[in-house]
Protein: Ferritin-like domain-containing protein
Amino acid sequence: MTDTVMDAGDTDAALIAQLERRAERRNERREFFRTALGAGAVAAVGAAAVTLGSRATAQSVNDAATLNFALNLEYLEAQFYSYAVTGAGLANTLLTPGSASTTTQGAVTGGRQVSFSDPLVAQYAREIAADEVAHVTFLRNQLGTAAVAQPAIDIGSTATSAFSVAAAAAGLVASGAAFDPYASDENFLLAAYLFEDVGVTAYKGAATLLESKLYLDAAAGILAAEAYHASIIRTVLYRKGLDTPSLRTSADGISNARDGLDGTTDDDQGISPVTLTASLTSTTTPGSYAPQVPTALLGLASNIVPSAADGTVYGRSIGAVLNIVYLTRLSVSKGGFFPNGLNGSYVTSSAN
Structure:
């Protein structure tokens, strides 16, 4: 691997190769079951899975609505990462509505390739991009004909784009100034940080809405992947922030902006080092998060995992997630990164 980013053709090939390797591993697992159980048993398992999937779809329209909500968010993340890594968006075959869906496909505004200067950041970006494209594919396969089309998405870098509005709210740029998430490694990381933490809390919150174990398993798998992504982004920002404190301050500003949009609770956490204390309470003061820990562990610590006092990650309601992606505290049905709103049943943010 050289210190320069691969061109779009090489990157496309790398992403395709990674997805092909995953397909090979899936085929290997199937071959194992054929050998261990026999072809008849595998056929029976497959038939049961189809029946379960059909039952889950019939069991709860709400399950499909919840997965479609997640699909909207995955469209946003996948397009951002794909453009940042390859300079191009997703294939149109991944954006169209399922045959039973009446939703309208929207276009992507903005997006371009990042000229990464840090080869490590470039490699992380390629991995996450491949995962996000796979998430879109996976959710569409789970939903089948009920899959909604991609809505209109704004990932531009003009002064009026969603990224610029979010950056101004976080104090990264002045009000009315442009923020370009594709201009540097650091800007890319901050933009990714804006999305990743929201993705984790969105899946955590949506898990309580799912009735089907089949769909719950699917959501849990993506939640775990998004948590890994968020930890990668937070770790790199934390490390770079030790040398460039302003980067850490910017990340904390994004956290505060999210907290200001999604309600009255102070749940979101930045990446600044924290002081662990023996208290069970946490405060709203940055860097003062206070979980209950053994005396031997008290003192300054990193804050890679934004966990609560019990060590778990909190979830956001659908309305709270939409507050952030719409960039508003009001109850609305569009705005921010989704200028025409989401496709599907869940489209309205909360009134905060």
Observations:
- The longest helix spans residues 213-243.
- The chain has a mean pLDDT of 83.
- The two ends are 48 Å apart (CA to CA).
- The chain has two domains: 8-59, 61-269+314-326.
